[in-house]
Fold this sequence. Notes:
Elements: H1 7-20, H2 23-35, H3 41-48, H4 54-74, H5 80-83, H6 86-99, H7 103-110, H8 117-124, H9 127-153
Amino acid sequence: xxxxxxxxxxxxxxxxxxxxxxxxxxxxxxxxxxxxxxxxxxxxxxxxxxxxxxxxxxxxxxxxxxxxxxxxxxxxxxxxxxxxxxxxxxxxxxxxxxxxxxxxxxxxxxxxxxxxxxxxxxxxxxxxxxxxxxxxxxxxxxxxxxxxxxxxxx
Length: 154
């Protein structure tokens, strides 16, 4: 049986929430959730290699934030069941779902085999998490198709 979430776990979740509210982090999260829709690994890698662009900084900021939060779970400092609640990690799944199809190639081409590793561990380590990643990934793919269709009409 999994350990129950504690008041410490809840306090850490609230601290993570507070960090997401910082002004630059809000801009970075907006860009990654709303504006950045890579269709290929090359598009993802282009941003990762465009140091010191604003988009590169935002990718590193948000990716690092969610990888750090996931590391808390992986290392046992934060209750996994609590973290996996949609209100706690929904954005992580959404962002990871956008890059997941390109992750292997990204890691190879950037020589960074541990990129997003903690997020991947959390998002694929349990049946609940895998189902959520699958559902989110389908939604993302549908959104990509809709964006491509809109771009063709424009």
